[in-house]
Write a structure and sequence with these properties.
Elements (H helix, E strand, L loop, with lengths): L12 E2 L6 E2 L12 H38 L2 H19 L21 E5 L16 E5 H6 L4 H12 L1 H9 L8 H29 L1
Antiparallel strand pairs: 1-2, 3-4
Helix pairs in contact: 2-6, 4-5
Amino acid sequence: MAKGITPKPPKLKKCPICSTEYTPRSSLQKVCHNYKCAIAFNKQVDERNAAREQRKQEKLQRDDLRQRRERLKGKPEWNREAQAAVNRYIFWRDYGDPCISCGRPLNYGVRGGAVDASHYRSRGAAPWLRFNVFNNNASCVHCNRDLSGNPIPYRINLIEKFGLGTVERIEHDNKVRKFDIEYLKRVKTIFTRRASHYEKLRKRQQEQAA
C-alpha cells in the first residue's frame, strides 16, 4: 500500500432482524454480530426457499394437469378453442369499427355480448374459411344472428374494407380443406398472440386519446 493512503472503513449496514447498525466483517455478512439474529435470518431464508420450492412444485403440477387435459381433448374442442382465439383477434383488430353489415356503431365495452365475429361465408357453407381473417369481421348481434350475417350490405362494406379482389377470392374459394388437431393448436396459439398484441395496441391508443 502506498504511503499516506488510509483505507476506507467499511460502510455501516443495518441488521434486517434487529435494525442495529453494524460494521460487517466481510461482504457476505448479512446480519449484525448477534448470533440470535443470524439464526432468525437463516430461518427466514429457509422459509422463503421452502415457499419458492412449493410454488415451483405447484406450477409443475398445474402444467402437468393442463398437458394431460389437452391430451384428452378431441378435435371438436380444439376447433372451438381455435375459433374463440380467432374471434377474440377479430374483436381487437376491428375495435372501434362499425358493424360490417349495417354500419351502426358497435358497443365494444361489452366483451362477448354486443359484438360478434361474423363470417361472410358461413362456417356451415364453407368451413375451410372459418379462420380466414378476411372472411371474419366485427358485426352486431342482430345482423350476425338474426339476419344470418345480413349478406348484401356485408358484401358492399367488405369490398370497401378489403377491395373487390379479396372478396372475390373468398367467394371463389371452394377448395375443401380439413384441419387436423395440430393445425388447430397452431391457429389457437397464433391468434391468441395476435389478439394480445392488438388488445395492447388499442388500449394504448385509448390512453393517448384520453
